[in-house]
Every structure is written in C-alpha cells, then in structure tokens.
Task: inverse folding
C-alpha cells in the first residue's frame, strides 16, 4: 500500500491533494482507520417507537439490526447469524419479537439472545457441546444516544458519545430538541450518487460560498428568499466539539420575532423558550443568527431552511433534515436522508414542513439536485493522474502566513460555544479534514474476536486449537477454532 | 385492484401526507379490451407524454396536468412478506401538487438549473398499458410500466429507473389530463443522482 504520509501532511496544512476524492487506497484506509472506530449515526429512537420495532442499517458493509427490545431498550445487533453467518434479518424495517435465521433456523430474541437452536442436543450434545446460554448476536462494540439519535462505533473503547460530540451538542439541540419530547424522524429516502462521501460532509459543514452560485435557480423561482449573495455572507460558520455548521443572519427583532421570521408558530416558540438554555436562545434573540446546514465528523449532516411552500403567500415554513453520507466506494455514496420534525408540532405544521423538505432537499429536492451534479463531476475529475498533481487550496479565510482574514466573534458578540466567524471561509472544511487526516495517520489496534459457542467470558487464547482437548468438552476450547481445525 | 393498498385498504394517495386534496376515483371492473376506444386514447396519451418528457418540453407537459393533481412517488422499503406494506410510512420521494410541480418546471426554465445544463438524454419506455373505467364516465384509470434511461455527459454510466404507475386521467374539453399519478418505483435505493426528471 502506498505511503500516504505526504497526503496527510498536505491536508493538515489546508492543501488538498485532489485525488483524495477518488482514490481506492485512500478509501481502504478510511474504511479501516476512520469508519473502523469513529462514532457513526445509524437511526433515531422515534424510528423504533414500540417494543419489537426494528430498522436495519449499515455501517459501510456491516449490517446492524437497530431494535427496541421487550424492555424498551435500544439495541444495535450485528446482523449475522452466530451459526454459519447468514444475514438474520433481511427486511429493513418491521416489528418482531424474534428473528429466525432462514438457513438452519436458529432464532434470536429482539435483544439478540439465542432462544432457539434446532437439535441442540442431537447435533451438539447440548450445552456441553455448544454453549447456547448467554450467546447473543454480536452487539455493536459501542452504542450511544443523544436526543434520541442513535450512534454506534466499532471501537469498544470509543470515548463516550457525549464527549465526542462535545460543544456541538449545543447546536444539535436546535435541530433535535425544539421541545422536551424532541423530534420524530421520517424516511429515510435513499439514493446512490457517483460522488465521494467527503464532499457532501464538507459542503454541509461550512460551504456558504457555494450558495449564491449553485442555488441561484431556487431564488429565481421564488422558493427561497435567503441565499442571495449578500445574505449568505452576513451569516456565520461555527465549529464546536466534533461538528460545525453555518448560520444565516436574521433581521433585527426580538427572539420571538426572529423565530417567527423563519416560520415558527407561537406554540413552538413557547416550547423552544422552555427547552433551550439562555445561551441557546441568545444566539437567535440577541446575536441574530439561525442555524442552517451542519456536519458532525465524519459523515452525518443536518439541514435547516425555511422556503415558501405555497402559492400566493409570503410565509415561509422551516424544515429539518438529517442525513448520513454512507460510503459505498471511493467514487460512490449512498445518501440516506430523513425528514425530522418536532414531535409536539401541530399536524398542519408537520405536513407543511415535510412539503418544504421535499421541495428543497432529499432525492427530489431542488437545492440538492444542483449540489449533487457538482459533486459527481468533481469526483470523476479527481480519478485520474492529473488530479494527483493538483493541491487544491482549502485555506479560505486565512492569509498565507496563517493569519485570519476575519477574527472569531467575541463572547460579547456571540453567545454560542466554539469558534465562530462571519462570512465566507473554509475553517469548517479544514476542521473536518484535519480530523480525517488524524484518523488516517493513526494505526488500528487489532479488534477482539468472539469465539461462538464457548463460554463468553473465556479468554479466546485459551490454547483450544489442540483437538485432543476437544473431546473433553472443556469450556476452555473455542468451538470456532475446533471447527476450523477439523475442516 | 389498485396498485397497492395497505392494511386498512387505503390507497397510497390516501395515505400520503400531502394527498388530502387528491381526487379519490377508483377503477371498476376488468381492464378494457385493447381495441376499446378509451384504451386507445389512454395509450396514445401516455405515449405522447413520454415524448414530451424525453424532450423535456415541460410547459407542454404542465398543460396536460389537472389543477387538483396529486403526483406521488412513495419510498419503497424491503419488508417481510406478512408485513402488509412496502412503502415508507409518512415519507415519499415526491408528494406534489400542481404548485410544487410548477416550481420544479419553472426551475428548469431558469438559466441556473445546473443539474440539467447540459441536459440529460432521456428515453421513457412505456409498456404494459391497461385501462379501466371508473364510476365517472369522464375519468379512467390507466396502469403502465415505465423504464427511464438517463445519460449525462460522456464519462458516467447511464442511469435507469423502473417503475409501475397508476394514473387517473380526466376528460376535459380539449382532451385528457392527469389528475392523479402514483409511481411505484422498483428500487428501495434509487440508482440515479437525483430526481430532476419526471416519470
Ligand atoms: S446460518 Fe443461521 S442457522 Fe445456520
Ligand atoms: Fe448546496
């Protein structure tokens, strides 16, 4: 494998070797060192509201059943049968108390525990041969939930999710905690685009600069009153914890007037005032900024916008969308895009907000259509040898000597955490890619293995490869190893 | 039988979030013989429409769309055989009325709709057409299968979308117009960069 040290160093100083957007070896490294240990969004609790509800989600090639078990607890179970490795659940959503493997009929409760193992006695000699008790579908090594958003990490020693999110939680609440009951998620829409996954994540994190050009058409058709060039550059980009995003500058007014300006009805405003901290309210009411797009490292993004959705009306309607840029390969991404809305909003608001989402974002969204066209072009252009000679300048906002073009807002000017600046810049894209480079630089430790059918707490290195010990039925012998020896 | 009904026997248009305004007319009886005049008119209407959509002649296309149209493309999901549904509850790719369709069309008419500039080469293949009467002599239901081939530039592979459609056509003074369309796309994950096309 090629030594990527110089690529990583270039990225760390804000120069982007163009081929990182379409490079097989880089992608292999991302799979191993980034997606192999980072926190990744998979689902929201509202997608599995009742006991037995489940959705099936992927973390790259790995399929996980995200279920709510009979006790109401959320589980993330690796969707691979403990017997011969068949995919246990082949639907993508539903409600089930048990999952039965179609191959030989092992069955599992919705918390992952084995309940049925046909001919356990005859085939295995019962518990002595195969320890069914305590065996469970492999859980995701780490699972964390914030505001109902379910994340998994393939790293059993991942730092706690809330530490990872850090100050970005402050901003996440605008999207996912507009009232005590939080959001409900609908969808997702899923579609594949021939674009590298990083491009979208970077764009949503901080690319206010593209809005006036890429999205001219949606202003022209009267859908949107905001993205005019002068409007966009009055907003901010912020980076906090492991995420960052963009805001729009709101017109003068009180907190209530400003929330009304983006289309929130009074009942929702009242709940926001109860729910949000003084600082969270001040970013809107005092500083005059409203969150728009954002990304959490590495591949989750948010959108908040407020288009006009009805004829002969100047009223705008806000919508929220959450998405995941699911990598398929170095030049292909599955976009997984949900519509999110506050649970306590009126049915009428929910319907119009959904309409706003469909018109702007998602598989048919008019904003999105032009974004993806650009990203697909970029990706195919990055695939050849010439792209290897090009170091793209991702230093917007910084002079050559590293000095800022615009200094961050001070605590007097801005009430939110993190580092926030008015106007166009690429600080956030750099923040995202710096974390990317740091991951790619750091080798992985070998993951622990589970030896199916043996005592789950037994050390896997208990010398069980000696077949002479197998006949003793000793619990120290990992069954999987015995089988491979006999094969 | 309608394209798909859920456990409560409701059509997809009835279940959809934004279909409250949609006409509710349903099919009656068997499909019409292929030499029935109504069927021939319906078939011709669909073929003419396919040519308009291939040419991206969206003004002409909109002139064939009813005021109260509901244009729905649900999100398909993989569910167990007994689940009783195969579309994502409360979500669609497109759930449009005439106003939102008109915005989409208006956008293509600007000089800044980059996703279709340069335009795609489009071919809508329409087949398996059958026609049903309804209780209203001026309304018919037409089922069809559509395969869209879309090619852009010279580097990317072409994309295709396969779908079944159920249309409600209504007779007006000047011909037929589309009053309701439900598009059952055949993939749970669309293999096309966006839906800047119509089916
Ligand atoms: S592979 Fe699942 S029961 Fe055999
Ligand atoms: Fe964009």
Result:
């Amino acid at each position: 494998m090629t030594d990527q040290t110089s690529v990583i160093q270039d990225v760390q100083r804000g120069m982007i070797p163009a081929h990182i957007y379409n490079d097989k070896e880089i992608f292999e490294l991302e799979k191993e060192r980034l997606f192999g240990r980072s926190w990744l969004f998979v689902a929201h609790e509202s997608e599995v509201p009742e006991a037995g509800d489940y959705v099936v989600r992927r973390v790259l090639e790995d399929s996980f059943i995200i279920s709510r078990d009979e006790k109401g607890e959320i589980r993330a179970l690796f969707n691979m049968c403990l017997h011969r490795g068949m995919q246990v659940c082949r639907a993508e959503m539903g409600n089930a108390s048990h999952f039965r493997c179609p191959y030989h009929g092992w069955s599992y409760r919705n918390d992952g525990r084995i309940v049925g193992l046909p001919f356990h006695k005859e085939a295995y000699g019962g518990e002595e041969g195969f320890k069914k008790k305590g065996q469970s579908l492999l859980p995701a090594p780490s699972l964390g939930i914030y505001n109902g958003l379910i994340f998994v990490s393939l790293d059993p020693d991942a730092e706690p999710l809330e530490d990872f999110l850090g100050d970005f939680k402050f901003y996440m609440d605008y999207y996912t905690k507009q009232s005590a009951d939080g959001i409900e998620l609908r969808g997702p829409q899923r579609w594949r685009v021939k674009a590298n996954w990083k491009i979208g994540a970077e764009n949503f994190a901080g690319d206010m600069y593209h809005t006036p050009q890429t999205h001219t058409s949606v202003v022209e058709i009267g859908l949107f009153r905001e993205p005019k060039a002068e409007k966009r550059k009055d907003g901010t980009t912020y980076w906090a914890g492991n995420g960052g995003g963009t805001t729009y500058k709101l017109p003068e007014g009180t907190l209530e007037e400003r929330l009304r300006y983006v289309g929130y009805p009074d009942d929702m405003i009242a709940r926001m005032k109860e729910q949000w901290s003084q600082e969270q309210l001040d970013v809107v009411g005092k500083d005059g900024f409203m969150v728009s797009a954002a990304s959490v490292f590495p591949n989750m993004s948010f959108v908040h916008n407020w288009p006009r959705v009805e004829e002969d009306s100047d009223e705008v309607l806000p919508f929220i969308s959450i998405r995941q840029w699911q990598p398929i390969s170095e030049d292909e991404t599955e976009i997984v895009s949900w519509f999110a809305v506050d649970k306590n909003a009126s049915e009428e608001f929910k319907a119009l907000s959904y309409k706003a989402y469909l018109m702007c974002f998602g598989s048919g969204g008019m904003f999105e259509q032009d974004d993806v066209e650009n990203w697909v072009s970029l990706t195919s252009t990055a695939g050849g040898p010439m792209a290897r000679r090009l170091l793209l300048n991702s230093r917007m906002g910084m002079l050559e000597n590293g000095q800022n073009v615009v200094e961050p807002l001070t605590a007097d000017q801005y009430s939110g955490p993190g580092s926030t600046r008015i106007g166009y810049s690429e600080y956030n894209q750099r923040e995202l890619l710096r974390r990317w480079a740091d991951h790619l630089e750091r080798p992985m430790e070998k993951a622990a293995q589970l030896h199916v059918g043996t005592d789950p707490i037994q050390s896997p290195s208990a010398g069980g490869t000696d077949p002479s010990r197998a006949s003793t039925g000793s619990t120290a012998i990992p069954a999987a190893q015995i089988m491979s020896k006999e094969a | 039988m309608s394209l798909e009904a859920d456990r409560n026997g409701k059509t997809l248009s009835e279940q959809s979030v934004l279909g409250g305004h949609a006409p509710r007319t349903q099919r009656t009886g068997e499909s019409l013989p292929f030499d029935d005049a109504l069927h021939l008119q319906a078939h011709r209407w669909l073929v003419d429409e396919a040519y308009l959509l291939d040419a991206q002649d969206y003004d002409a296309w909109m002139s064939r769309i009813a005021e109260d149209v509901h244009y729905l493309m649900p999100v398909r999901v993989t569910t167990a055989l007994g689940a009783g549904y195969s579309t994502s509850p409360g979500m669609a790719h497109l759930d449009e009325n005439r106003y939102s369709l008109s915005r989409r069309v208006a956008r293509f008419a600007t000089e800044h709709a980059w996703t279709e500039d340069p335009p795609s080469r489009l071919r809508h293949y329409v087949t398996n057409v059958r026609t049903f009467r309804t209780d209203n002599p001026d309304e018919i239901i037409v089922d069809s299968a559509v395969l869209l081939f879309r090619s852009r530039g010279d580097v990317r592979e072409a994309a295709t979308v396969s779908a079944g459609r159920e249309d409600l056509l209504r007779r007006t003074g000047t011909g037929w117009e589309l009053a309701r369309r439900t598009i059952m796309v055949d993939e749970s994950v669309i293999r096309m960069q966006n839906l800047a096309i119509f089916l």
Remarks:
- Chain A touches chain B through 48 residues (CB under 8 Å).
- The CA atoms of residues 397 and 425 of chain A lie 5 Å apart.
- The longest helix of chain A spans residues 366-381.
